[in-house]
Write a structure and sequence with these properties.
The chain is built from 13 helices and ten strands. By secondary structure, the protein is α/β, with parallel strands linked by helices. Helix 1 links the parallel strand 2 and strand 3. It is elongated. The chain starts with 9 loop residues before the first strand and ends in a 10-residue tail after the last helix. About 40% of the residues are buried. The mean pLDDT is about 95.
Length: about 290
């Protein structure tokens, strides 16, 4: 593929030393599926072929969403057996971004949720509109944000706020996201593109060699989290296709409140059965005949 490719799910343009990569699925709030991730990986990696590209920008088409995260119609097909098909693509996209020699800027317009927020976390800089909404919704929909969120959010905003964001599905509008350190800048919507272009112009005037080396150095500590990524992907593999994840995603698409309580009640019955068995010595080996 590359700069001349006819991508189907993203837009790719190189202009004045900047690679603009846009998820082009506005009909689903720029949610991504496997094919989208494949194209994103290819687009990011293709910037390596042109040393005149000084910076890459990733954003979402339209003005209502950067990305709503993974497309539920794709994720509901996943299970423990095929989980690597999704998880490896997520990891591949993250590594493509972090492995580039140039900075990658997330230009966040509108909704930036779940896996879409993880995409922004993989980037070097994040600039959002004031009306942008950033958050993690895994607990609400039965997913598991362990491909960047659990690793990076605590480093950015601290452990307490990270747990509030992940356990409580707390969201942040642009100005609050800037205040807590989740993004670099929050600007009026009409100034978002111009602000990102200003950042790009500044970067273009600086030493590519220095930026390449310092990006690698800045990534050093967080690169040590790779083991946590592998651990997180295996946890996620057991979430895909589970009854709770399907209930959460179905509820979202059906615009109803998920009934996660049914699983707690069922688990309580199983625990009671086990504890009753302990009390009645049901774990005693039967006598030999």
């Amino acid at each position: 593929m590359g700069s001349d490719a006819k991508y189907e799910e993203i837009l790719y343009e190189v202009k004045d030393g900047v690679a603009w990569i846009t998820i082009n699925r506005p009909e689903v709030q720029n949610a991504f599926r496997e094919q989208t991730l494949d194209e994103l990986i290819d687009a990011f990696q293709s910037t390596r072929h042109d040393p005149t590209i000084a910076v890459a920008v990733v954003t979402g088409a339209g003005d209502t969403a950067f990305s709503a995260g993974g497309d539920f119609h794709a994720m509901m097909r996943l299970n423990w057996q095929n989980a690597a098909q999704w998880n490896d693509r997520m990891l591949g996209c993250a590594m493509a971004i972090r492995g580039l020699h140039i900075p990658v800027i997330a230009m966040i317009n509108g909704w930036c949720m779940g896996g879409g927020h993880e995409l922004a976390l993989w980037c070097d800089l994040a600039i959002a509109s004031d009306d942008a909404t950033l958050g993690q919704t895994g607990a609400r929909v039965g997913a598991c944000p362990t491909v960047g969120a659990t690793q990076y959010i605590p480093r950015l905003i601290g452990e307490r706020l990270a747990r509030d964001m992940i356990f409580g599905c707390r969201t942040f509008k642009g100005p609050e996201a800037e205040a807590v350190g989740l993004i670099n800048r929050s600007v009026p919507k009409e100034k978002l593109r111009a602000t990102v272009e200003e950042y790009c112009e500044r970067i273009k005037g600086y030493s590519a060699q220095t930026i390449r080396q310092t990006k690698r150095s800045l990534n050093f500590e967080s690169d040590q989290l790779y083991a946590s990524w592998q651990h997180g992907m295996e946890l996620l593999a057991h979430v895909w296709g589970s009854e709770e994840s399907l209930e959460g995603m179905n509820a979202f698409m059906e615009k109803r409140k998920p009934n996660f309580g049914q699983f707690r009640e069922r688990n309580k019955k199983e625990m009671d059965r086990y504890l009753d068995g302990l009390a009645n010595d049901e774990n005693m080996r039967p006598p030999k005949k």
